[in-house]
Structures are given as structure tokens and as C-alpha cells.
Amino acid sequence: MTKRPVYNHVLHDKAGKRIKTLSLDSPVWLKGEDTLLYRRDRAILRYDVETGLERTVWTASEPVDRVYYDYHAPTGRLVVVTQQENEQGELRGDLYLFERVTDYEPRGYRGLFFDSGRSSDPEPCSGACLDPDGRGYG
Question: Could you tell me which of 130, 62, 57 has the C-alpha nearest to residue 100?
């Protein structure tokens, strides 16, 4: 698995008091909540600032090389993409769609992406997974 950097982020309250240090990657705040959504290894997690609880939103059920996600704040939708590279450099990708971050079972599309060319650590769709109206998937 290609390791992406994980950074330590320090959360402070409004008065500047340190709340907690979290080791995470790609953090975003959930709209209208005091909750942080982020990636760690092959999982997407959420941290509730009010309760101090960290919960797993989604974890890859099999080994994967990369996990990307995109949270669409206006609709609350979440898309997770996994990629796995074989010995020949071919990429296979899966897609998981959540209507809400709190959904227990996303819609999963296994083997949706396949690229037979050599990869060079591709980047996710950078927000293009969902169109501006949140209708990127049906």
C-alpha cells in the first residue's frame, strides 16, 4: 500500500484551549456540525468535538493501495474511491456512495474503474466526483 502522509492536527476551542491532537489526512468539517471528517490509512473517520468520540464511517474490507474521499457539504453526500495496483501496474478501483455520512451501508460498485496502463500515483477527482448541484450520482 502506498502510504500517504498523516499529519498531526491540534484542535482548539474558541478560547484557544487545546482539545485534542489527531493524526489524520484530508480533514473537512461537516456542514452544520462540530464534527471533523478525515482519512486515516484505509478508513474514513469522524470526530465529534462535542462528545470527544471518534467513529469509523467506512473501512476498506480488503487491502487497497489508495483511499480517497470527497464530501459534498450542500447535500451531505460522501463518495469514497479505492484503488489497488497489481504487479503489472494495472489499477482496479471501487466506488462507494453515501447519501449521508451517517449511512451504515453505502452503495458499492466493485471493479468500476480499471486502467491497464502504468500508474504514477494518480490523484482523486478533486471535487469533480459530484457536480455542483450534488447530482453526480443517481
Answer: 57
Identify the three-state secondary structure at position 84.
strand
Q: How many CA atoms lie within 13 A of 37 on its CB side?
A: 23
Indicate the residue type of 52. Answer: G
| Distance (Å, whole) CA 2 – CA 67 | 10
Quick one: CA torsion of 62, 52, 101, 114, rounded to 10 degrees? -30
Tell me 104's DSSP state: S
Residue 102 makes CB contacts below 8 A (sequence gap 6+) with: none
- The predicted-structure confidence for 61-85, as pLDDT tens digits, reads as follows 888 988 999 999 999 999 999 998 8
- Sign of the dihedral through C-alpha 63, 64, 69, 75: negative
pLDDT of residue 42: 87
The torsion angle over the Cα atoms of residues 37, 40, 45 and 49, rounded to 10 degrees, is -60
Q: How far is CA 94 from CA 18, 65, 82, 138, in A?
A: 38, 12, 5, 17
Task: State the average pLDDT over residues 21-32.
Answer: 85
Q: pTM of the predicted model, to two decimals?
A: 0.71
